[in-house]
Amino acid sequence: MKKTGMAIIALILTITAMAGPARSEEGLTGDVYAGMYNKYLFRGIDLSGNQWVTQFGADLGYKGFTLSYWSNLMTHQGGGYKAGEITETDITLNYTFTPIELLTFNVGNTFYSLENLRDTDELYVKTTVNTLLSPTLAIYWDCKMAKSAGLFYTFSVGHTFPLMKNLGLNLGALISYNQSNYSAQYWGIDYNNWHNYEFSASMDYSVTEKLRISPSFTYSNAISSKARELGGVSDESLYGLKVTYTF
Question: How is 111-128 classified by DSSP, letter by letter?
Answer without folding.
Answer: EEEETTS--EEEEEEEEE
